[in-house]
Design goal:
This protein folds into three domains: about 190 residues, Penicillin-binding protein 2a (Domain 2), CATH 3.90.1310.10; about 325 residues, DD-peptidase/beta-lactamase superfamily (Beta-lactamase); about 70 residues. About 45% of the residues lie in helices and about 20% in strands. Strands 2, 3, 4, 5, 10, 18 and 19 form a seven-stranded mixed beta sheet that branches. Strand 2 and strand 3 form a beta hairpin. The radius of gyration is 36 Å and the shape is extended.
Length: about 675
């Protein structure tokens, strides 16, 4: 290689190097001059972390300002996601498990079940003691629990335990299906969400707005300093129509009634419910369901297995029987039958029936009093609850007319209360009965017909000769005929019969209504025929006390019943609480005149349900009450005393002892 060629190569090499340096200088100049702010921002953001701060939920008060639901501070142990591997986290988890008295598997499950964004805390254990907080802080000094933080957040507090549980509901960590539906609203895994009652129905109002803390971290992701806090905004408060004093009286009375029924041998009596309404507005003063649960148990650290055990506990304590259960109303329905007959002119106020203790129509029906009630008119019929009178009146009036007036009083449809899960109930009609019986026939006999068809389909297909196939077809027809004969015996009941009307007239049979519907129906009788929508929330207020919204009476309809006929019905109910009346034993010494109707609803192969509906005072009604004691026996013996105790609490009277109520029931 000559000198000239070597020099040429050196020049090319130097040229390449110069070109590379020029490119690098140009790029650096561009980054320095044009992109400085962009990368400065990225670098700054890389050292900043935004940690959300939970907002306290709004509080809930009764109509007199008594706090029913509040908040208290709670310490939560969380793990901040710093991007560590499982191997890096294992010593932290092992050490933390010993402090928290948990197994490492429990903590790993909590970590793996949550997938928050980086630097967003993973909640491991809620509501830990100050002693545990101190131990964790000591360990953190030596950097043994890297990423573990103690968070202070508001915890729901229910100062009255299981009182009002079904109205208030409870909160719990948001469930995956709820998160999917509400993620657009800003919810994240680990947030709390109302699961039942008003906590669920008023979630948007109670929720509040999260705050945030901005923290600077070092290269290892450890907090260096706080750069500021945006405080959370508490949720709005609710003021309810509930009167805590009346509510607690109702709950105590229901507990007493169930215990009393069990003492008397009614072992299947396990539940009861009661509703108290203001007849002038539709305000719910009390809504009680027994048994109940303590909503506070969900505010702490509760596993899925523990929650499931509570949900499936005997007696179904999470079931709101006041609005979700429906019952045959028994004799509390007789006011509907009387109104239907009076309004259509089938009877008048002078109409009477002689009751010898039974009623005969195709067969003998025995009145609850076999000795008979003698000559009975509408008022006496309600006073003594004479079945014979209402059987006669029911046949004269007809099922469809009775059903029409039942619907006029709001029976068989939801009332529209704020709580979820309300049952509509059933007003019996010929068409409803046909569908119900047909469904039962299909359920019972459908599989039998299908089994025969399948059995002979296989046999006929495998038959060796035409003669054998014909023989199998005849056997199949005989088997189907036997099933059809049994089917036809039950199919007779597809048609509405007179005995259905007799049952309907006295509140038995297919009739089925909730305690809330019964209370609203009686409120309409008391107030002159106005059906109001029951409601629980009186107003919504901001944390600073400002009224955001108020709620008042909502008239749903005016019952198509004359004032004169309602007066007759009210008088009959008043007589029921007077000497000779079925409720006299519970109200004989009540300081105010009141009106009511006892009911005893028959249940197949079990003890009867005990019911009572009533209102007070008689002249200027203020409240309506309905009580159902499941399988409690006679309404006069158990349900009426419960109503008496509730009215004592509302009017401020001193209630008699339970033994006196039973003795005179």
């Amino acid at each position: 290689m000559d000198k000239k060629a070597a020099l040429k190569r050196i020049n090319v090499f130097l040229g390449v190097i110069v070109f590379i340096f020029l490119v690098l200088i140009a790029r650096v100049s561009y980054l320095q001059l044009m992109e400085t702010e962009h990368y400065r921002t990225l670098a700054r953001e890389n050292t900043l972390r935004l940690i959300t701060i939970p907002a306290p939920r709004g509080e809930i008060f009764d109509r007199h300002g008594v706090k029913l639901v509040g908040n208290r501070p709670l310490y939560t142990v969380s793990l901040i996601n710093l991007g560590q591997t499982r191997e890096e986290l294992e010593p932290v988890v092992e050490r933390l498990a010993g402090i928290l008295d948990r197994t490492p598997e429990e903590l790993w499950e909590a970590i793996e079940n949550q997938s928050p964004r980086r630097y967003e805390p993973i909640r491991l254990v809620k509501d830990v003691s100050l002693e545990i907080v101190s131990r964790i802080e000591e360990e953190q000094i030596d950097d043994c629990l890297r990423g573990v933080v103690i968070e202070l957040e508001p915890m729901r507090e229910y100062p009255y335990g299981n009182s009002l549980a079904h109205v208030l509901g409870y909160i719990r960590e948001i469930q995956p299906d709820q998160l999917k539906r509400h993620k657009a609203d800003g919810y994240r895994m680990g947030d709390v969400f109302g699961q039942a009652g008003l906590e669920n129905a008023m979630e948007k109002i109670l929720r509040g707005t999260k705050g945030a803390r901005q923290v600077e971290v070092d290269a290892y992701g450890r907090p260096v300093r706080s750069l500021g806090v945006k405080n959370p905004v508490p949720g709005n408060d609710l003021v309810l129509t509930i009167d805590l004093k009346v509510q607690q009286a109702a709950e105590a009375a229901l507990t007493w009634a169930v215990e009393q029924a069990q003492k008397e041998g009614h072992d299947d009596c396990q539940a009861a419910s009661a509703v108290v309404l203001d007849v002038r507005t539709g305000e719910v003063l009390a809504l009680a369901s027994y048994p109940a649960y303590d909503p506070g148990i969900f505010a702490g650290d509760l596993s899925a297995e523990q929650a499931q055990a509570l949900m499936t506990a005997p007696g179904r304590p999470f079931y709101n029987r006041a609005i979700q259960s429906t019952y045959p109303p028994g004799s509390t329905f007789k006011m509907v039958t009387a109104v239907a007959a009076l309004e259509t002119g089938k009877i008048n106020h002078q109409f009477t029936v002689f009751d010898p203790g039974y009623f005969y129509h195709e067969r003998r029906y025995t009145c609850w009093n076999p000795a008979g009630h003698g000559t009975v008119n509408v008022i006496k019929g309600l006073q003594v609850s004479c079945n014979t009178f209402f059987w006669e009146v029911g046949l004269r009036t007809g099922a469809e007319t009775i059903a029409w007036f039942a619907r006029e009083f709001g029976l068989g449809r939801k009332t529209g209360i704020e709580l979820a899960g309300e049952a509509a109930g059933v007003v019996p009609t010929p068409e409803y009965k046909r569908r119900m019986v047909q469904a039962e026939l299909d359920r019972r006999f459908g599989p039998q017909f299908e089994a025969v068809e399948e059995k002979y389909r296989v046999k006929i297909a495998a038959a060796a000769s035409g003669e054998r196939r014909e023989q199998l077809r005849r056997e199949k027809e005989r088997e189907i005929a036997r099933i059809q004969a049994r089917y036809d015996r039950y199919a007779w009941d597809l048609v509405w019969r007179d005995y259905d009307t007799l049952n309907m007239a006295i509140g038995q049979g297919i009739n089925s209504y909730s305690p809330l519907q019964l209370a609203n129906y009686v409120a309409a009788i008391a107030n002159g025929g106005y059906i109001y929508q029951p409601y629980l929330v009186q107003r919504v207020t901001a944390p600073d006390g400002r009224i955001i919204s108020e709620f008042g009476p909502q008239l749903r309809q005016r019952v198509s019943v004359s004032a004169a006929h309602l007066d007759l019905i009210r008088e009959g109910m008043y007589r029921a609480t007077q000497p000779g009346g079925t409720a006299y034993g519970s109200f004989f010494d009540f300081p105010l005149p009141t009106a009511g109707k006892t009911g005893t609803a028959e249940v197949l192969n079990k003890n009867d349900h005990a019911l009572y509906v009533g209102f007070a005072p008689y002249e200027e009604p203020e409240i309506a009450v309905s009580v159902v004691v499941e399988h409690g026996g006679k309404g006069s013996k158990l349900a009426a005393p419960v109503a008496r105790k509730i009215m004592d609490a509302y009017f401020g009277f001193v209630s008699r002892g339970a033994s006196a109520a039973i003795r005179n029931g």
